[in-house]
Input
Amino acid sequence: MRNGADESQPLGPPVIPQAPPQATASGPSPDSGAPDPIPDSVPDGVPSGIIVIFGAAVRPDGRPSATLRHRVSAAAALGRRMERPVFIPTGAKGRFGEAEAAVMDALLREAGFTRVRIIREESGTDTLSSARAVARIVRDLPTVPVYACTSAYHLPRCVLLLRLAGLPARACPPADVPAATGRIKRWYWRLREIPAIPYDAVLMLWHRTLETSLGGATRRGG
Output
């Protein structure tokens, strides 16, 4: 269902950066060198940035695949650089385990991010439907930078689709790992993007045109 060479990835999980230690009531001393803690809420509801994590397969035993872990690791690393990040993991339930978004939610919480920073999107079954679902969520949020987080080969399509959906999307630096351990598999994931990018782009534009037409008709009818 998802993009990522999950079965050919090594099983060992990458290290997901852990949250900085929480400050005491008085906060860290100015010269302690400790990083500022991540606050438990988003002041005034305005995030510093929105990080969209595109899903990947969940293993038969319910554990996240290596690809899924790498994507969450990259998102967590970017989130560490923001004062008030908000994450949108996207992905429906596949053949195994919980919904991909739920599995990524758990990984983010293990990394130290609180529930208020995570908006789960559990309807997306592929890249296009995930981008459309995320766009519907983000349109109701304050206008801030939106980052697409996925594997390197998959990034151009995700950024393009989010932009075509009307979001100010840019790329989240991906994990520095290959899409697969074998050369043939790596080229398979790269080459499949060649037809997928224009195909999904045309479908996104068609959906947006249809939504705009229906919205205009509803306003005229009202």
Q: What stands out?
A: Residues 5-43 have pLDDT under 50 and may be disordered. The first helix runs from residue 66 to 80. The beta strands are 49-54, 85-90, 146-149, 169-171. Helices lie at 66-80, 100-110, 127-138, 155-164, 183-191, 193-221.
